[in-house]
Design goal:
With about 90 residues, this protein is mainly β. It is built from no helices and eight strands.
Length: about 90
């Protein structure tokens, strides 16, 4: 079952239209929490401040450079939401 992990308003995120990304810095967000009741995947519930629509995102990949963690990418878990932008959280 999909849970309702840590909610984050789109007001807390920036939208990069060219890359189709929602972007934030790690220190500006609350900690992610569990996405599924039977797994330890973590993520966020992104809530549109315009419509109230909620999309659950789960951790997908992380990117490092020379041993330094640069960012984490979170992607929507429901197939119906796959057209939504990727959530990228930069390690600051």
């Amino acid at each position: 079952m999909i849970l309702r992990p840590t909610p984050v308003s789109t007001e807390q995120l920036k939208f990069d239209k060219e890359e189709n990304l929602l972007v934030a810095e790690d220190s500006s967000l609350p900690r992610p929490s569990r996405v599924y009741d039977d797994a330890c995947d973590e993520g966020y519930t992104v809530v549109s401040h315009h419509t109230g629509r909620e999309v659950v995102y789960a951790s997908d990949t992380s990117w490092s450079d020379g041993g330094d963690l640069l960012y984490w990418d979170y992607r929507p878990v429901n197939r119906a939401d796959w057209e939504c932008p990727t959530l990228r959280v930069f390690n600051d």
